[in-house]
Amino acid sequence: MFLVTEDFKTFIRKYPITTIMVGLCTILAIITTFLGGYTIENIINLGGYEHELVKQGEIWRLFTYAFMHGSYAHFFMNMTFMIILGRPLERALGSVKFLLFYLLSVILTGLIINFNYSPNTVETGASGVGYAFLGMYLFITVFRKNMLFSDDRKFVITFLGIGLLTSLIIPSTSLTGHLAGMMIGFFITPLLLKKSARFQNSVNV
User: Fold this and answer.
1) 123 bridge partner residues
2) Fewest CB atoms within 10 Å of the CB: 49, 61, 136, 170?
């Protein structure tokens, strides 16, 4: 289920929202490169979250933070996770509900980060959305096991466990953003995902 088998044109046709979101992050990464790389100044200028700026009225940063990243490693890691985890969810929810889920995850995670901010810290990246994806998979694994094969449920639990562990041990990681995204994804799932929804045939991962 998590293995990407589509060619580029088929991927765009089947997963338009995933494609658009990855595309927006990629455009910002390219712009960042031309501006000199991932400096604090560039991150802030291109939409990163900074509490004092939000406090001064730049509330759009509660949304744009999710499309900018803090480094090339951060960008490539998040885009890989978005492609692997996002495709099956867009397929199961449908593109309209998947877009709603994506936007709610970004905005609600941004609000929680804002209420629980760390002074002199810039927050950025799509990790909160990635953990919202994992939160949805966790809900499915716990309450709707029939939607996923056993190997896929094991993959979700393993992936989530590794993600939470790295969130705790890597100093620059936004633990608040990750936990917020996961909880948001978990609690939104029953509102958006029909019990009749189905994923395509799974493969062992």
Assistant:
1) 49
2) 170
Chunked mean pLDDT (size 10), the chain, 205 residues: 87 96 97 96 96 95 95 93 94 95 96 88 91 95 90 90 85 85 96 82 40
Locate tokens 């998947």: which residue? 98
* pLDDT value, residue 93: 94
Predicted TM-score (pTM) of the model is 0.91
Contact 18, 82 (CB under 8 A): yes
- Burial (0-12, 13-18, 19+ Cβ within 10 Å), 150: exposed
Encode 152-169: b = buried (16+ Cβ within 10 Å), e = exposed: bbebbeebbeebbeebee
